Structure formats: structure tokens, C-alpha cells
Amino acid sequence: MPAPHNTALPSYACPRILAGQKALVTGASSGIGKAVALGLGRAGADVAVNYNTKDEIAREVVEEIRGFGVQAIAVKADVADEDAVRAMFKTVFDAFGTVDILVANAGLQRDAKIDEMTLEQWKAVIDVNLTGQFLCAREAVREFKRRGVREGVSVAAGKIICMSSVHQVIPWAGHANYAASKGGVDMLMQSMAQELAPLRIRVNSIAPGAIRTPINRPAWETPEAYAKLMELVPYKRIGEPEDIAQAAVFLASDMADYINGTTLFVDGAMTCYPGFATGG
Ligand code: NAD
């Protein structure tokens, strides 16, 4: 069995396949969102880094992105707040002129058994994970429709990537609000893709498995927890945020132009029913 903590990803030369494109990544000051924002910048896009707390950390991400020779700005906004989302897009348009790529990534968990779950816990998760994606996608689509294809920049009029989860298909006891939000993201994504495809707007999801970020720290921070987690991961390593970033760069690029309305699972085969690996 490979060493469980050997998760270093190979370094590779990144072609600037997103040169000239303008991207907005929500929840981009930590974890997956940060890696995606860096990945898009490294691929040549100008990047708006949305965050809702900790201005200093967002500024550090912006500085790191600027190191790739592209523009970057930090935009504070609660993605569950309609007015704040509108204001965020206006800030992006003022800085970049338009937007070509939205990565609707911001998300949170408020875990509880179903009979102990408060309405507040339910709403907090649905408001950010599902309504937040709707609010951001709506503003992006308005801009994509207004502007159309930017010749020489991308063959699509716009790309939306929804950050879903393996829990859009795997039920999750004790996390019904989270699983319901991601199941909702799946149908939101597919319905938007169907509606917007004739306008050359592509909408897809990424469904991460277990990725090493703050959201699931208890699942990987001790060797015992890590070993338990690996029972669910046939590939026998935790995912790194960069695994998701590479998928996002691909989906946002014209290399993925015929990919529309689908979910790319980036999960080390977690959705392949590992419990059946030894017969079942
Ligand atoms: P994370 O906690 O590091 O990132 C979530 C980010 O969203 C944080 O930066 C947080 O500040 C931001 N956020 C939360 N509420 C917000 C709001 N109202 N407005 C703006 N930003 C807000 O965790 P992560 O693992 O990087 O999660 C990113 C996304 O990936 C989430 O949608 C999560 O559901 C999804 N995901 C993560 C995993 C995993 O294993 N880490 C697996 C599947 C899906």
C-alpha cells in the first residue's frame, strides 16, 4: 500500500490556456476556492477572489495570484445576500470590464442529526450552498447574455462551474442539510445547462471527494482519522485542493468546450462503492 500521507502532486508546466479571461471564484480565501483561484491565475486568467471574512488572508491570495503576471482583486461579499452579490459583480465589472468564468465554490457545513437540526442550521447551509450558487450564477448569466462570445478569448459566451460534492449522490447521515444542498446544486446546474446551452454558455459541476481543507479537518488531521477515511477512498490518498484546481482549469477552458451539464467527480473513486471491493 502506498504511504498514506504522500500526497505531493507532480509539478507541471501550466499552459496559459485561460489568457485574457476574467474569473470570479467565491469562497476563495481558503481550501478549494483558494487553490482554484490560484490555478486560474496560473493559467492566465485575471481573478476576483471573493471572501466573507479575514481581509488579510484574501489579500495574501490576491498577491500570490498577481505573482503569475495577471490581475487580481479581493471582493468581500456574503454569497447568500442578494444585494451583496450584485455589488460584488459590479466591483468585478468595474475592475475587469466583464466576467467569463464563475466558480461558485463558497460552502459550509452545520452538522446535526435530523431530529436535532435547527431551522437555523438548515437555512445556513441551504442559503450559502444552494441559494448562494443561484444568486452568483444569475448575475454571471446576465452578463454572459448581455455580452455574448468574446472573439479570440473563448469560444463560449461564459462558463459556470458549481462546486458540488460526492454528497450530491451519496446520502450522508447527520449532514442532511449539506447533502440536500448539493443534490440541489446538481439539478440547478443541469437545468441551467439545458436552458443556456443554445447561448453557448456552459454550466458544469465538480464533485470533490475527501479533500484536505479546513471544512473537514477532523476527518484527516490524526493518523487514526486518516486511516478511517481511507476505508472510503479506493485510491488510498486524500485529495488535495490542487486536484480540484486542475479540474476547474480544464472545465473552464475551451479544451472542455463540448462538456456541458455534467459533473466531474474528483474523488479517488469514492463513488465506486468501496464497501463492495472485496465481494459484497
Ligand atoms: P473551506 O471551509 O476552506 O472553504 C469554504 C469557503 O467558503 C471559505 O473560504 C468560507 O469563508 C467561504 N464561505 C462560507 N460562507 C460564505 C458566504 N456566505 N459567502 C462567501 N463565502 C463564504 O472548505 P472547502 O473544502 O475548500 O470547501 C469549498 C467547497 O468545496 C464547498 O462548497 C464544499 O462544500 C465543497 N466540498 C469540499 C469537500 C472537501 O472534502 N473539502 C468535498 C466536497 C465538496
Overview of this structure, please?
- The protein is an alpha/beta fold and 280 residues long.
- It has a single domain, classed as NAD(P)-binding Rossmann-like Domain (Rossmann fold).
- It contains seven helices and seven strands; from the N terminus they run βαβαβαβαβαβααβ.
- The chain has helices at residues 31-42, 55-66, 82-96, 119-147, 176-196, 223-230, 241-252; strands at 22-25, 46-51, 72-76, 101-104, 158-163, 201-208, 263-266.
- Strand 1 (22-25), helix 1 (31-42) and strand 2 form a beta-alpha-beta unit.
- It is globular and about 55 Å long.
- The two termini are 22 Å apart.
- The model is unreliable at 1-6 (pLDDT under 50).
- Nicotinamide-adenine-dinucleotide (NAD) is lined by residues 26-27, 29-33, 50, 52-53, 78-80, 105-108, 128, 132, 163, 165, 208, 210-211, 213-216.
Question: Can you summarize this structure?
Answer:
This protein is of the alpha/beta class.
Mean of all residue-level pLDDT scores: 96
CATH superfamily: NAD(P)-binding Rossmann-like Domain
What is the CATH first-level class name? Alpha Beta
* Count of alpha/pi helices: 7
Bound molecules: nicotinamide-adenine-dinucleotide
Supply Rg: 18 Å
Annotation keywords:
single chain, alpha/beta, 13% strand, disordered N terminus
Sequence-ordered SSE layout with sheet pairings:
Elements: E1 22-25, H1 31-42, E2 46-51, H2 55-66, E3 72-76, H3 82-96, E4 101-104, H4 119-147, E5 158-163, H5 176-196, E6 201-208, H6 223-230, H7 241-252, E7 263-266
Parallel strand pairs: 1-2, 1-4, 2-3, 4-5, 5-6, 6-7
Helix pairs in contact: 1-2, 1-7, 3-4, 4-5
This protein binds nicotinamide-adenine-dinucleotide.
